[in-house]
Automatic annotation (TrEMBL):
Keywords: Hydrolase
Name assigned to this protein: Alpha/beta hydrolase
A GO MF label: hydrolase activity
Keyword Hydrolase: yes
Domain of life: Bacteria
Gene3D superfamilies: alpha/beta hydrolase (3.40.50.1820)
Keyword Hydrolase assigned: yes
């Protein structure tokens, strides 16, 4: 793991492999942990980059640092510059969709291609629990730790169509526990601002690179219809549902997702053996 110091924040990131650059963007309440197995599998043909957004995973979680979409897009653009990447392939999940889109539409970040899986990218978005937290972030951040842990475990578990393995659930929950993690969990939800998503949707027609949208058919956090509308708004974008997968498509349908990733990236990067879909 390496650290990128940016505007008082510590952004954790890592790189592996060789070949065309592929950057993975996570969402909330997740971290780069979700993408790591897929990045490792692709590292034989690609140079893969993982990073934790400020306020998430192994990155710093200072209470006075904003963590909204605008800040995350700024951080992503700064990271791309730090890495010296002019036009990488980008793979995004959940909030990572909004962040990567804003980095392109507002800051001019260039991508060779963009694959988005069950992303928060255009309105509307947010589960009932998400909306409850936004209304009472200060109160919930002070609940006893055992109640907080139960809430986070239930919230994360609800994102999966299949029951999560205990080890996976523990890994996803761990960054949000303790004196630093608990308030950070509610702080990042409170920072949600749907205006950024409306701005993204208004700019979709300006996207000129290849885009593919994947969606779990059983996603109860963001309905498939939203993913279809997202793809329809981007010139030339393609859409594909992933059967028997919820919002946590990485854990619900890892084989189907890995197959889609390799096929898409092989064609986009013009690797030998790439098959058009």
């Amino acid at each position: 793991m390496e650290i990128f110091d940016w505007e008082g924040r510590r952004i954790a990131w890592e790189r592996a492999g060789s070949g065309p650059a592929v950057v993975f963007c996570h969402g909330t309440p997740w971290s780069s942990w979700l993408w790591r197995p897929f990045a490792e599998a692709l590292s034989g043909d690609f140079t893969v980059y993982l990073w934790d957004m400020p306020g998430y995973g192994r990155s710093s979680k200072e209470p006075d640092h904003p963590v909204d979409f605008g800040v995350q897009a700024d951080a992503f653009q700064a990271l791309l510059t730090h890495w010296g990447l002019e036009a990488p392939h980008v793979v995004a999940h959940d909030y990572g969709g909004a962040v990567s889109l804003r980095a392109h539409l507002v800051h001019g970040a260039r991508y060779a291609s963009l694959l988005m899986a069950d992303v928060v990218a255009i309105p509307p978005s947010g589960s009932p629990f998400f909306r409850l937290v936004k209304e009472h972030p200060d109160v919930l951040s002070r609940v006893p730790p055992y109640i907080h842990e139960a809430l986070v475990r239930a919230y994360i578990g609800n994102a999966s169509f299949r029951e999560l393995r205990e080890g996976d659930l523990a890994s996803l929950t761990a960054p949000w526990l303790g004196e630093e993690g608990q308030p950070a969990f509610y702080r990042q939800i409170a920072a949600y601002d749907e205006r950024y998503l409306a701005e993204n949707e208004a700019g979709l027609s300006r996207i000129g690179f290849p885009v593919r949208v994947l969606w779990g058919t059983e996603d109860t956090w963001i309905p498939q219809a939203t993913g279809e509308r997202l793809a329809a708004g981007i010139p030339g974008a393609t859409f594909s549902p992933i059967a028997d997968a919820g919002h946590l498509v990485q854990l619900d349908a890892p084989v189907a997702l890995a197959t889609e990733l390799r096929s898409w990236l092989s064609v986009s990067a013009r690797l030998p053996g790439g098959v058009e879909r």
